[in-house]
Write a structure and sequence with these properties.
mainly alpha; 8 helices
Length: 189
């Protein structure tokens, strides 16, 4: 009977060890997802600031049009909270729309596109776009790891007991997609 008791104790230690290890992994991945979302939020707010700087630069050349854009940025909640994948996707779409409107203004004023302020603001905005893109990749990679643990057995058992859920993915930025070359068109020629 002592052998049976030792086997039971060893099995209990293994199960408890697995439970603790899985819980720590889930917590770590959950925190990494939260951190990645926070990084994206910071970058999106910086991107809004860069767009606002571009709009203010445009004010020197096209006062009425730039004021309209500035008002639109402020009315749509430029630096709002973006701490969920859905909020980040909405804010990214809004940024793309605002940038599109600004590009129309910039096309009308070639001297504006040549100004040092505009060039610097545009460089900053591009840098923030790249940072957001990289942060999205980090989040989606981490969410994939988390989702595997939450959905695969036996870690799914621990995840459900501790109320860990599957994470939503961030969608591809529509502005980012537009920048890709259309390979279908290229190969038709």
């Amino acid at each position: 009977m002592s052998t049976f008791l030792v086997i039971i104790i060893v099995l209990a230690v293994i199960v408890i060890g697995y439970f603790i290890s899985t819980q720590r992994s889930l917590v770590s991945l959950d925190e990494m997802c939260k951190n990645a979302l926070s990084q994206i939020e910071v970058q999106l707010n910086s991107r809004f600031d860069a767009i606002m700087a571009m709009a203010k630069t445009a004010a020197k050349y096209a006062a009425h049009e730039s004021e309209t854009i500035i008002q639109a940025i402020q009315a749509r909640g430029g630096n709002g909270r973006a701490n969920t994948p859905e909020a980040i996707n909405q804010q990214s779409d809004l940024l793309g729309q605002l940038l599109g409107r600004m590009n129309v203004v910039f096309e009308r004023y070639p001297e504006l596109k040549a100004s040092e302020l505009y060039i610097n603001a545009q460089k900053g905005q591009r840098e923030y776009e790249e940072n957001v893109r990289m942060s999205r990749m980090v989040y989606n990679d981490t969410a994939t790891k988390m989702n595997r643990m939450v959905r695969q057995w036996p870690s799914s058992f621990v995840a459900s007991m501790l109320h860990f859920d599957v994470k939503d993915y961030l969608k591809v930025d529509s502005e980012e997609k537009k920048q890709y070359p259309n390979l279908d068109e290229a190969f038709k020629k």
